[in-house]
Amino acid sequence: MQLKNSNKIALAAAGLLGAVNTAQVSAADWDHEASVLYYGESDGRVQDGSIKYKGKRTNDDDNVLTLNLGIDTLTGSSPSGIAPSGDVQVVATPSGGSTTTYQANKLTLDDTFLDTRVDLGASWDQSILDENTRLNVGASLSKEYDYLHLGVSGGVSRELNNNNTTLSLGLAYSADTIEAVGNTPVPLADISAAKGSSDESKDTLDFVVGVTQVLSKNSILQLNYGLTQADGYLNDPYKRISRVDSSGKIVQNLNESRPGDRLGHNIYGALKHNFSDNVLSTSARLHTDDFGIDSVTLDTKYNINLGNRRSIEPHIRYYHQTAADFYAPQLDATAPIPEFASADYRLAEFDAYTLGATYRFGGRKGREWRVTGELYSQNPKREKLTASQAGLDANPGFDALLLSIGVKF
Amino acid sequence: MKKFLAVLNNRITLLILFGLLTTQVSAIAADGKPVDLSPYKGKVVLLDFWASWCTPCRKSFPWLNQMKEKKSAKGLVIIGVNVDEKNADAQYFLEQNKAAFNIIYDPKGVHASFYNIPGMPTSLIFGRDGKLIHQHSGFKTKNTVGYERLIDNALSQ
Amino acid sequence: MIRLITCILMTLSLGACSSASVKPWERGNLAKSSMTFGYDSMIDSTDDHIYFSKEATSGGRSFGAGGCGCN
Fold first, then answer.
1. Is A322 within the bounds of a domain?
2. Labelling C25: which of A139, A156, B90, B110 has CA 20 to 30 A away?
3. Domain boundaries, position B44
4. Has residue B51 been placed in a domain?
5. Do B20 and C14 count as a contact with CB atoms less than 8 A apart?
């Protein structure tokens, strides 16, 4: 499974603009943040451990340099896309080096999967023209065994109405390289067929425009519109899809195939309201794209001040997405093979719920500590398989636990 | 229908006049009150508007303390005007950032609105004649040389 | 009819004027970290990354804004 790098609107390499400002160097303030995180899914699926660091240096001219660094280690298994069957299946692994045996009547999880990912980012933020206009530029890089991401970003923001209104605009470009283990499988070819090239590329352009508006002494609103255009290799090289006959027998396993471009839009609205000591943060996001995926996300947090620099913040999130046009849990062996087909559970129709809480407390020397625990549950719509596969579920969903500790110092 | 619209029009006109009136009234009330500088006649006064939630204020306090120490003998008076709505917040800040100068409290922003403070923090410098000679918002270490020169100029009058 | 609409719009805009913008010295509550967008950007971007890896939607949030508005 690839870890896809989200396009952070990050800022640029220090060396470019941080030139010579020796007189003010001593007046710069550093803010640091570090966190460790554990993420684990049910049924022996994916587990991830990570460590992250972020450093922010603000100088006397209010120029801000931000550096971030993260390391993730992934283990566990991931659904292969091959349909569950009443028979035991022995199939070639994606790397081609060996075979995997899938038990009868069980979800086909591919466990030949262990990876470490490193990501680095740097950004620069400064005022330009006047004190109410700011420019930011950034660069990011991430590397895992089979995936390389390189990205640049830039944006501007402008304050109006005595800092009551902020307009912002951002653009990010990513150039990613996918070097699938065992080479890139040919889309819709048999999984044991000869592979294609050693690397593929994917380009993504992200655009965001937004406004943040102070509504009152206790209320602030943010509205954003975003657009994402991705081109190139959008497949998951390790995901398969089965051709199943009417008796529920798997006739053939094929490599999945997705379109070579994807255009998506989203609108996002968030509101924060202060109730004397407590703060309600709520947001909604609507998304649509030409893969046929429409989604809605609703997120609410309530920060309760416990006094003495402590607070507890319960969190609830609801997410629903429709399936991609070319998603199917399996293909009918008697029907012609469609142009695009994927059984990737992440493209299916599902509801997802998150329930969690964050406890914050102040430590010595002004440190701010944060402990977060969350439960995530993905509940897919049950898709019908053949009669002989009755009782089998190609995509049963999963639960996941997230635990994180962080500190700002 | 026509009669209804006519009545509605009259009501709306009344509403608009009422709205205009209340806006004028609230505008007058919002003008605020100046800080009474009469006890400091003949001195140079620096009014510094600050709040516990204002990050640059943490940097300005050591400099204000320094100015008070160096120049109060020559006739400089520094008054910190706190605009925190909750006094407890101001006291917590003062525990972490000691102020060698006087603090007055303006929780309702009566003084802040009189001087129409454009940003936080804001410093107002009044000459020995009581006239406002300089105002600046924000606090940057590189500008302190200039501020000090201004104060010295005012003190030499 | 046009007069009616104009009158309504004028009244509404007056209402907007009198509630006005928040003054610089009134921003205490807006300066709270929990009232600032992007204050917890590290855990936010970690969450976004996890969701993007498990779901088919990305994006939404943008820059931090709000806060104390200090100069």
1. yes
2. A156
3. 38-155
4. yes
5. yes
